[in-house]
Design brief:
- By secondary structure, this protein is an all-alpha fold.
- The protein has one domain.
- Helix content is 60%, strand content 0%.
- It contains four helices and no strands.
- One of its GO terms (cellular component) is plasma membrane.
């Protein structure tokens, strides 16, 4: 999970600074394209980051919960379980529902002029 968070931070930094991993002019990347962060892309990144933070907090709680084994005081406290386990996942899913990646990617793809899925090519009858 920490590796995923690191990669997301690097992606957001590179996308915001318009600093791609491969520079223009390298084989396979001849054209120079400046991709700005649109409103939809910002919402998408925000939704993913918010849900990731909630899941990460839940994971930290689970590590602390099981640090004392199955007889620790934290594992037997229902309120802590409800808040740090159930509520964190619920809030993470709400974040992804309000900032739904499918809807935001469709509008981002429409703005950029490319399709998310490849259309089957039409056979030309001769």
């Amino acid at each position: 999970m920490s590796i995923f968070i690191h990669l997301v931070i690097e992606y957001v930094w590179r996308r915001a600074a318009d600093c791609p991993f491969r520079k223009p002019g390298i084989a396979g990347n001849e054209e120079e394209v400046h991709r700005v962060l649109t409103r939809e892309m910002k919402l998408l990144i925000t939704g993913i980051c918010v849900s990731t933070v909630f899941v990460y907090l839940r994971s930290l709680y689970r590590v602390i919960e099981f640090a004392n084994g199955s007889n620790g005081p934290i594992i037997h406290t229902q309120v802590l379980f409800n808040v740090f386990d159930g509520a964190m996942i619920t809030f993470g899913m709400f974040a992804l529902n309000f900032m739904h990646p499918g809807l935001l990617l469709k509008s981002t793809a429409a703005d950029a002029g490319y399709e998310l899925t490849e259309q089957p090519s039409q056979a030309v009858a001769t």
